[in-house]
Design a protein that fits this description.
254 residues; Nuclear Transport Factor 2, Chain: A; five-stranded mixed beta sheet; globular
């Protein structure tokens, strides 16, 4: 694992789980820290102030980093937060930008409730994770970019089967299993990628982050795709309603 990936993970675990914010910032954060997380003020001082209150509200914190994906100077993590003995559970999807020394200097995220699977649903976040096919990184990244463009922007749903296998493994509990259920969901809710802000890929995984319109409502959304043999075989996502400009405490979601 690279230095920047270790720093991103350690910032999460030491600062947020263990509550050692000052130590973590000194060890893993660069000279500046640009913040895009809803409700968290910008800068190192804003981070420390927000989590001082967070620790009072959530004295018990168990954080599991389920997936880590790197692309260039960006690190994506897929995280489960188990707070106060399960009183609150969250799924967070985060991107960290590192400087030339691998220290973290910018952060984006989306946070949503963790929902326990019911009636045969797959878990929203937990499951196997293995990065392979590193030689196909560029190919898979290009395929996902085309998928987002042709399907979610150009609305060429007749091309759907070119990108997604019929037996798609789906982790979004609002969508049924299989490719057709995902396609129907996109059509019924008029799911549109207003813009793709980030697209990361590493081997058989690709992650997109951008503004998505669903039934006309804007969301900040991450989509995580696993690919095999040139098609999408598994999908996770995470979204939160875009905050109003007047409610921002930092530079906004993007």
């Amino acid at each position: 694992m690279s230095i920047q990936a270790q720093n991103a993970q350690n910032l999460y675990l030491q600062a947020i789980q263990d509550g050692r914010v000052a130590e973590a910032q000194a060890s893993f954060v660069g000279d500046t820290y640009i913040q895009h997380s809803t409700g968290v003020p910008d800068g190192k001082e804003g981070f420390a102030a927000f989590f001082a209150d967070f620790f009072k509200r959530h004295p018990e914190r168990d954080i599991k980093i389920v997936r880590t994906i790197e692309d260039g100077n960006l690190v994506f993590v897929h995280v489960h937060q188990y707070l106060n003995g399960g009183e609150a559970q969250w799924v967070t999807t985060d991107t960290f930008r590192a400087d030339e020394n691998g220290r973290i200097v910018e952060h984006w995220d989306v946070i949503d409730y963790y929902r326990k699977p019911e009636n045969g649903q797959l878990d929203q976040i937990f499951g196997n994770f293995e990065i392979k096919d590193l030689g196909k990184t560029a190919e898979n990244k290009k395929l996902v970019r085309r998928f987002l463009t042709e399907i979610f922007q150009n609305k060429e749903l007749d091309q759907w089967e070119d990108f997604v296998v019929e037996e798609l493994i789906q982790h979004n509990h609002e969508i049924g299993e299989g490719s057709q259920a995902y396609k129907n969901y996109v059509r019924e809710h008029d799911v549109t990628y207003d813009f793709v802000f980030q697209l990361l890929a590493q081997g058989n995984y690709a992650v997109s982050y951008g503004q998505v319109l669903m039934d006309g409502v804007p969301f900040a959304q991450y989509d995580i795709f696993r690919l095999e043999n040139g098609k999408i075989v598994e999908h996770w996502d995470n979204k939160e309603v875009m905050p109003k400009v007047e409610d921002l405490t930092n530079r906004g979601k993007f």
